[in-house]
Amino acid sequence: MRYCGVVNTVIHSDNLHYIDLFVRGEVDSAHSEEPQNQEPHKCEGWHWIDWDNLPSQDQLFCPLHLLIQQGYNPFKETNEGISSGNTNRPSVLVPNQRGRPGVGVGVLVTSPARPGCVLLGVRKGSTGSGMFALPGGHLEYGEEWCECGSREVLEETGLILKDMKYCTTVNAIGESKDYHYVTLFVRGEVDMAVSPEPQNLEPDKCEGWQWRDWGELPPLDQLFCPLQILVQQGYHPFESK
User: Fold this and answer.
1) How far apart are CA 40 and CA 91, in angstroms?
2) Do the Cβ atoms of 208 and 200 come closer than 8 Å?
3) What are 133-147's pLDDT values in tens digits?
4) Residue 88 pLDDT class (50, 70, 90 cuts)
5) Do 74 and 4 contact (CB within 8 A), yes or no?
6) Which residue, among 203, 205, 215, 207, has the nearest Cα to 117 in the 3D structure?
7) Residue 143 and residue 151: Cα distance in Å, rounded?
8) In DSSP terms, which residues pair with 132 in a beta bridge?
């Protein structure tokens, strides 16, 4: 099993907004070769279709439609994504009363005046209090990821960003703290003509902002869960495309 990509699915007519994460896996022919329709109340039936001969886009459900629009092809993709956990067997769904995971956006804020650095703050008054984290927050209904990142950074630091780009996504689970978020990371550069230095505009949520060299980040155990996972996966904002 491998992670493939992620799309921002908004269907205003149905009042729906989903973050759809796509993964890919190959059928284990030693156990099962052909699919069975085990949820007939949800699906008319399963069949194999050549990727180059898919139905027209107006017949595809929105997330698949968006994935294709982004140019993804499962048989030409060079990025294999990131394997997660034991993929030799299906995962076991554990019933819980916690609802669905949250969706957050973390922002890698860079500045031409601070080469190789990103903006970090120490969290205060919520999950991860006392740990270093990037600016960011919750994705709102109908919002694009980069729009969310720009808004959150402006609200928290007063900085205006430009050249916003999507970077990557992590599945951040902190079981001991009852924490599960899908965190989308975006990156933007400070518009030096407008706001060169950050202000701590939410002192009840952050101890203060500081520029830290990516190669000299605090130890992993001092990083808030999503950022810790991002670093563990080997992501580098100044080397990754």
Assistant:
1) 22
2) yes
3) 999 999 999 999 999
4) very low
5) yes
6) 215
7) 10
8) 122, 223
